[in-house]
Amino acid sequence: MLNRHARGDGPMAKTLPVSVRMDPETKKAVEAAARDDDRPVSSMIERILKLWLRDNGYLPKEGGL
């Protein structure tokens, strides 16, 4: 059994793991974008998702913009 920290729900948890399925073309595009932006694929996916969520009103706009 995993402890609270290993499960990602302890007091120090900043992110939670998520499993996502995508078609090969999308995966290649995300990998290329991540490489071009010098970041891990998971970070690129999170960035793209956050931008979409902000643009569509699911997350607040940063800096009041």
From TrEMBL:
Entry-linked SUPFAM superfamilies: Ribbon-helix-helix
Tree of life domain: Bacteria
Pfam family, one: RHH_1
Residue ranges, annotated region (Disordered): 1-24
Ribbon-helix-helix protein CopG domain boundaries: 18-54
Record-linked InterPro entries: CopG, Ribbon_hlx_hlx
GO terms of biological process kind: regulation of DNA-templated transcription
Protein name in the entry: Ribbon-helix-helix protein, CopG family
